[in-house]
Give the backbone structure.
Amino acid sequence: MLIYLFNVLIFPGLIFSLAMGLTVEAIDRKIGARMQRRMGPPILQPLYDLLKLWGKKMMIPSHIPRSLFSVIPMIGLAALVTVLLFLPIGAKPVFTVTGGLLVILYLITIPGLMTILGASLSGSPYSSVGLSREMVMLLSVELPLAINLLTVAIFVGKAMGTGIELSLAQIYSFQINHFALFTDWRLWPALFSFLLILPAEAGYSPFDLAEAETEICEGVMAEYSGRNLALFHLAHRIKTFVLIALFVALFFSGILVSGYGLMVNILIFLIKVLLMMLVFITWVRTSTARIKIEQAVRYFWTYPLGLSVASLILVWVTSV
Amino acid sequence: MKTELPIYIIIIPFAAAFILSCLAKLRPRYRKFLVLLATGIPMALTFFMLEPVRKGVILSYWLGNWQPLNGWAIGIGMAVDPLSLFMAVIIGVSTFLSGVYSFRYLENDHGVSKYYTLFLLLTGAMFAFVFSADLFNMYVFLEVMTVAAISLTIFREHKSGAIEAGFKYLITGTIGSSLVLLGVILLYSATGTLNLAQIGMKAADWNHPVVIFAFASLLTGFGVKGFLVPLHTWPPDAHMSAPSSISMILSGVLSKTGVYALIRVLYFVFQAMHLPAVQMLVIVWGVLTMVVGVIMALLQHDFKRLLAFHSVSQIGYIITALGLGTIFGATAGLYHLLNHVLFKCLLFLAAGAVLYRTHTTNLSELGGLVRKMPWTFTFFTVGAFSISGIPPFNGFASKWMIYKATAATGFYPVTMIAILVSTLTLASFVKVLYSAFLRKPTALVANISEAPFSMLLPMGLLSVGCIITGLFPEAVIEKVLSPVAGSLFVPGQYYAALFGHSFLNIGPTFSLPVFWQPLVWLLTFFLILVGLLFFVKLSKAGPLKSAGSLSNESGTVFTGGESAANSNPGADDLYWGLKHVFAPLFNWLRKAHSGVINDYAGWIVWTVVIVNLYLLIAL
């Protein structure tokens, strides 16, 4: 019971995820600035920002039910934090017998859904443009993401002789015992497709259409302020961490696992995640410009989807 | 006593319908009381049958005590096996809730006594349909059901489109019924009997073209009742113009009787589910239904029309899962069937509550109802999240099982399509939530209030049902679905019960090492929510002191200088990014649904032809 409470509230639950959200933001902003030949903010800037926003007055338009408006960001954040309990962070996940990849797939859409509902409620025309884009992006990304997850599940299932293995705990221990999945060429298309999806799913340039600051005034966030906005910002960063952690858990679990105990393994896991983030989020973010929504839809329904399907067919027809 | 229960369940609504039509001048209060009795007593009687059927007894009853002679059915038989009872309980509860809901809903309509006569006819016919163990009897009650439903569809005949909807339903429904009759006749000529069990006991001779033709006709005929694409052309119009208490029955229950008949045909009469060709046919049909339904739903601007297309899409899930032919797939399909009844009835009732207060279901005119109708909004949200498969609501649990069942049998593309369709469903319901409930209020909704209690009560009960079936999937499967799904795989039990043999074979079961456990997740979710609230409380006093919140008194949002009236975008083109890219597909589908009844009749005929050809070649 105490262990469960510790898991839920401290590691890898609430406190850890908040810390990771801040860390991800700090490193992303600092290194991103260096990539653009700027100094960048101090490393504690995300914390200052959070505290400042938290202390600000919240402006809520009078036609909105206030409690609903404020509870929406909390639901999104809480649902997101639960995903961390399904992920193997340096060790087996906390939840081993419940859920699996399909549950994770659905849980990571809840924050997006809550963003959309909050934006709908705010009544701002900018928000409605933003929520339309957020939903369309979700529709575009969901199919390749689902195919990637299932491809991995089919691969591991075939290798273990169980048909299809949707449990992330099993996929993790398979990689520990045998080999990391990124070493198998048949999964490379899925891996690349996942990398192409990452910035879109996490909402970074060139796919930050829903929150385009320069164009539609932060879109979905337009009427949010103060503590609610701080929660949304945190959720955004935590989602980044969760997605990359999922990616690392799926493809890179088996390498660099030391025998020096849990703490070292967790540290190695975090380093993997942060490195992936620097390359595939920060680097991409700093070197691209935002694209239009119809371009994004067309893009996701061709290249990432094509790669995912290719990987699925390869894994399907060949024997492991 | 117990064996006679089914006949009482059928007689009571029919008798009440007759009495009501004789006493048209009855005071409304007594009429309501009579309707409550006539729907409530059958519902209660179905509960009495739960205990024996759960123990494995299949109740059988021969009308007029015409017992079979030398194993040959002479009279009309009725049998209550787990599947029939499952359907009967669903019908009983839904019609009762629909009756309660309709009292206030119809207060401004004329000819209400005719409405209740037809409504009770519909109720009785649905009960008789699922209890009947006689193919011709099934056809008869199918006709009673269809005729009553058509008349109820045009109950508000002054509404534009009502007559047209009724006409469409009449034509397509009649063609469907005729196909069923054709199938029945062919089977009778081939086997010499009409009893389901007796036909089932003869192994189907798939080399015989008559058997294949009968099979295809029955599938298509019942497919019309069950909204399978391309036989789905009548529900959108019918659901839109029917009163919401009837839309709920049409979509939630009447379509399920079509699915029930398909299960009977596939699993009992022909025992065809072990044939890969039939499995393939059913799965492809289900996937087609799923995809076309959801795309058409995405293009709709009318609240109830959108819901109707979603019914089509969700039936696709059920049919696909049942087409897998595995015990896990069948359980998943039946689970989704149960859930679909709960959330679709709920959604139609919510749409009806909106219609009752605002007199429109056009999404472009509605807006900002969350302030005016908070309870309706809450219940609708539960339904919308359930149908979109958001954890921990019931839609997720059953969809999770369907994904797992399709993936486990190797139909990976089906799993992918099902996941995509689920996301499209979410998009479409976000559109409804946005345009009807959440966005800025429009002028239309300025002076409206919450729906009356008698309308909120059925919605509340259905919401609770959605949450319970979502939170306890393993209990629902063990207590409710396992006996039903198991019985599909031992049809011998059904035959034996009618013809007095003893047959002791327990249906297959399944177990999974990893299961979706909503309670564990929900507890974690709430703990984290409490943790977050702790931080919020902390900010009221202490180091994170917050300055509180400020209401923007003028009530305006930032519109960039545009006048507020012009900056309240509707739902017409909410997902234009998607529509723009997929315009060829969307336009083609929209054009195909021409609204011309000749086209739709042609689709049904072509379906029979294609199914026949496919079966002739594949078997």
